[in-house]
Each structure stands twice: as C-alpha cells, then as structure tokens.
C-alpha cells in the first residue's frame, strides 16, 4: 500500500462569482521512504496539494489517503489528531514561536502529544546534536540565524517520528550555501532513518536533490520523473 494516495483530487476556491481550480483531477502515489518534490511555477497547485495531504485543507472532490487512513472517513477531531501524530511540517517562514526557546519550540508537538518532559528533552537533545545545533537549546528564534531556525523547525517536524514530513518551500528564505547544507541534512535523514519527505518548491536546488520530481501546471500533473542523485 502506498504511503500517500491521491485519487482524482480536485480543489476549487471561490473568487467572487467565479471558481478557481487550484487542483484538477490529480491522481498520485507516494511510497514510504521517498524523497520527492512537487515542482512547478507559482499558481501550479503544489502548495494546495501539500495542504490537502497534510489535512490542512479539504478537497472539493476526490480522495486523500495517508498511512492507510482515508481522510473522507475521518471527522475533524480525528483528522487533527492524525495530523498531530503522523505528519511533520516544515514551512518557509519557520513558524517558530518567538517567546519559546529553540528546545521548547522543537518540543512543542511532543508536548501536545502528552509526552513527558524528561522524554521530550532527551529526544530533542539527541536530535539537536544530530542536526548540528546542540548548544542552542536555550536561545530564542530572534537570536538564531535563518539556517538555525530552519534546523529547529526540522527538529520539531521529525521529533514525533511522523509517517511523512511535508516541506513547503523550505529554502525560500535561505542563501544557497545554507539551503544546500539543509538539503544534504534532510537527504541524510531520508537515507539513514527512512524518513519520507515531500517538498513543494520551484527552487532548482531542491529539485536537483529530489529523487522524484512531480511537475504540476495549472493544477494538473505535467510530468513525473525519477532521477539519479549522487
């Protein structure tokens, strides 16, 4: 069974008296352990697809199934709980809470899951060391560089050991050197831990690092290509 299965997915948004079709008839399968990117220009539907997979939005028509769960059969509370426990998010704007320390930000999802404080700190300490940000646990986001903030966001996303990590334009606010380092880091997590990553991006650097490039245009699948990564 595929980790992510999209079947004839459609999403339209009202715009005055008209409707805008953001996703049109998309059918797609993502397997566990993939390192894939939804690519395409602005307005191609890639972020909408990511939001639908992440249960942040609901389709107008069609089915979304993730980790064996059909979203159409789940109520809002069930979807929220599934999203909390099985999906990790990395955003281009980091979405860190300014008044919390780096460690507290990274622990936030674990806290919502009811994980005990000692276990949270142990898990986050190990992840911070793995991501090369150990020693920054007590700093607040404003005291961190963009690359460090994104590493904290990655820690928060992977700490709950989700079924899939969804990354929406994760390199958009980073210089090319920092972006390269972070992509190498996420590739290593994918390779060594089997973490499944699905990106949305039009950044050539992200596309070059992906094993699978799923190109969208006007909400439709344009191409689906496997590529060798050195």
Low-confidence stretches: none
CATH class of the domain at 4-96 and 162-226: Alpha Beta
| SSE succession | EEEHEEHEHHHEHEHEE
Total strand segments: 10
> How confident is the prediction overall: mean pLDDT?
95
Q: Outline, from the CA principal axes?
A: globular
In DSSP terms, counting alpha (H) and pi (I) runs of 4 or more, how many helices?
7
CATH homologous superfamily title of the domain at 4-96 and 162-226 = P-loop containing nucleotide triphosphate hydrolases
At the fold tier of CATH, the topology name of the domain at 4-96 and 162-226 is: Rossmann fold
Would you mind describing this structure in some detail?
The chain has helices at residues 46-53, 76-86, 102-112, 117-131, 146-158, 176-193, 204-209, and strands at 4-15, 18-30, 35-39, 61-66, 69-70, 87-91, 164-168, 197-201, 212-217, 220-226. It is α/β, with parallel strands linked by helices and 230 residues long. The strands form two sheets. Strands 6-7-8-3-9-10 form a six-stranded mixed beta sheet, sandwiched between helices. It has a four-stranded antiparallel beta sheet with strand order 2-1-4-5, covered by helices on one side. Strand 4 and strand 5 (69-70) form a beta hairpin. Helix 3 packs parallel to helix 5 (146-158). The model has no long low-confidence stretch (mean pLDDT 95).
């Amino acid at each position: 069974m595929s980790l992510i299965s999209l079947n004839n997915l459609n999403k339209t948004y009202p715009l005055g008296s008209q409707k805008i079709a953001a996703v049109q008839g998309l059918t797609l399968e993502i397997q566990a352990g993939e390192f894939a990117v939804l690519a395409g220009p602005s307005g191609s539907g890639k972020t909408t697809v990511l939001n639908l997979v992440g249960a942040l939005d609901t389709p107008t028509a069609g089915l979304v199934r993730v980790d064996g769960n059909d979203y159409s059969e789940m109520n809002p509370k069930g979807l929220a709980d599934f999203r909390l426990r099985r999906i990790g998010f990395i955003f281009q704007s980091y979405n860190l809470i300014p008044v919390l320390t780096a460690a507290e930000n990274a622990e936030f999802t674990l806290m919502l899951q009811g994980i005990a404080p000692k276990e949270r700190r142990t898990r986050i300490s190990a992840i911070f060391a793995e991501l090369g940000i150990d020693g920054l646990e007590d700093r607040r986001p404003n005291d961190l560089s963009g690359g460090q903030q994104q590493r904290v966001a990655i820690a928060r996303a992977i700490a709950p050991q989700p079924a899939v990590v969804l990354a929406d334009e994760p390199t958009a606010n980073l210089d090319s050197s920092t972006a390269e380092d972070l992509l190498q880091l996420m590739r290593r997590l994918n390779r060594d831990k089997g973490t499944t990553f699905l990106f949305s991006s039009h950044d050539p650097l992200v596309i070059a690092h992906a094993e699978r490039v799923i190109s969208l245009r006007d909400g439709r699948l344009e191409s689906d290509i496997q590529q060798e990564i050195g």
